[in-house]
TrEMBL record:
Molecular-function GO term, any one: chorismate mutase activity
Name of the protein in question: Bifunctional chorismate mutase/prephenate dehydratase
ACT domain residues: 275-352
Primary localization class, coarse: cytoplasm
Xref: InterPro entries: ACT-like_dom_sf (IPR045865), ACT_dom (IPR002912), Chor_mutase/pphenate_deHydtase (IPR008242), Chorismate_II_sf (IPR036263), CM_dom_sf (IPR036979), CM_II_prokaryot (IPR002701), G/b/e-P-prot_chorismate_mutase (IPR010957), Preph_deHydtase (IPR001086)
Length: 356
């Protein structure tokens, strides 16, 4: 026992040191905040945050786990930023959605999360300055793209200033945590589809109802002891549910990608992505000529989606993601030759790539 006491004493001494250093760090951050406010610069600096994480993860000798290091510094930076100003983050709600989880994963618990009822409402919250940033889903690795989000970018002047990846794990949850209590199950159609095999094999006789979000399903289960919901860990916490079965999704590697929208234009980090939208004329080879500009500059295209333009029947806009930052000379060059081949063109943002 003497050894145990001794070890705990050492831990206490280190905690005191960490506490002292956290406050010292906070003092510097307050100074940085004053300089940024004076020179009218954005307080949230995604490129700097990424540089901090990357440097520390690279430097970490262990045994402290790298992912936990990221989470610890996420909260240190979130709390530090709140000393400059609490950041208001609008997200596609209600509370407990995967978008809520994504917002907290990125901005930390010291930000103020504002639940919006729809994707257009998230855009409006940021446009009307009710929120500093917005978080919206853009695509799921199994279900594909969220068209509504893509369409919103046509009319909005907001930038994409970051992306967040969340691994989607679905849990079957109810009030008691007892399987036998479940008489019906609620969830979003995507979540139900992603757990179809598990549901067929394990609950073939229980009726399943579709509702508008996994969070709504969790809320309903929290008010009805014979109901269960399929949803995120966040919903479990927010609605005080108990997990009956964890991880009931049929496929591993189920990720959803979320975008952060706002006014800032993040600086280059060296590991960035650029999103843009364009349309081409109805001529043979016009799409090919546009995209050739990227191929000629050796630029990797990570995504292309087409959507109806909505202005003219059978005209389309193309959403493209490429590796790199708009300030990279090769990208600048490609975009200059690219614009000669398109009838409409808009850069949606250059931003640090999200951690998967
Ligand atoms: O370096 C800054 O600009 C800071 O405000 C400090 C800090 C940090 O805690 O390290 C806080 C928030 C920013 O988004 C980036 C970094």
């Amino acid at each position: 026992m003497k050894r145990l006491d001794e070890l705990r004493k050492n831990i206490d001494a280190i905690d005191d040191e960490i506490l002292h250093l956290l406050n010292k760090r906070a003092e510097y951050v307050i100074e940085v905040g004053k300089i940024k406010q004076k020179s009218n610069r954005p307080l949230y600096v995604p490129s700097r945050e990424k540089a901090i994480y990357d440097r520390l993860v690279k430097k970490n000798p262990g045994p402290f786990p790298p992912n936990a290091l990221r989470s610890v510094f996420r909260e240190i930076i979130s709390a530090s930023l709140s000393l400059e100003e609490v950041q208001k983050i609008s997200y596609l709600g209600p509370e407990g959605t995967f978008t809520h989880l994504a917002g907290i994963k990125h901005f930390g618990l010291s930000s103020k999360m504002i639940s919006a009822r729809s994707i257009p409402e998230v855009f409006e919250d940021v446009e009307k300055k009710r929120a500093d940033y917005g978080v919206i889903p853009i695509e799921n690795s199994l279900e594909g793209v969220v068209n509504h989000t893509l369409d919103m970018f046509m009319d909005s002047d907001l930038n994409i200033c970051g992306e967040i990846f969340i691994e989607v794990n679905h849990n079957l949850m109810n009030k008691s945590g007892v399987f036998e209590d479940i008489k019906r199950i609620y969830s979003h159609p995507h979540a139900i589809a992603q757990c179809r095999n598990w549901l067929n094999n394990n609950v073939p006789n229980i009726q399943i109802f579709e509702v508008e979000s996994t969070a709504k399903a969790a809320e309903m289960a929290s008010k009805d002891s014979s109901a269960a919901a399929i949803g995120s860990e966040m919903a479990e916490i927010v609605y005080s549910l108990k997990v009956v079965h964890r991880g009931i999704e049929d496929f591993a590697n189920n990720f959803t990608r979320f975008l952060i929208i706002g006014d800032v234009k993040p600086e280059k980090t060296g590991n960035d992505k650029t999103s843009l939208v364009f349309s081409v004329t109805h001529e043979a080879g016009s799409l090919y000529s546009a995209l050739k500009a990227f191929a000629d500059s050796d630029i990797n295209m990570t995504k292309i989606e087409s959507r109806p333009s909505k202005l003219k029947t059978w005209e389309y806009v193309f959403y493209v993601d490429i590796d790199g930052h708009i300030s990279d000379p090769m990208i600048k060059k490609a975009i200059d030759s690219f614009t000669g081949n398109v009838s409409f063109f808009k850069i949606l943002g250059s931003y640090p790539k999200g951690e998967k």
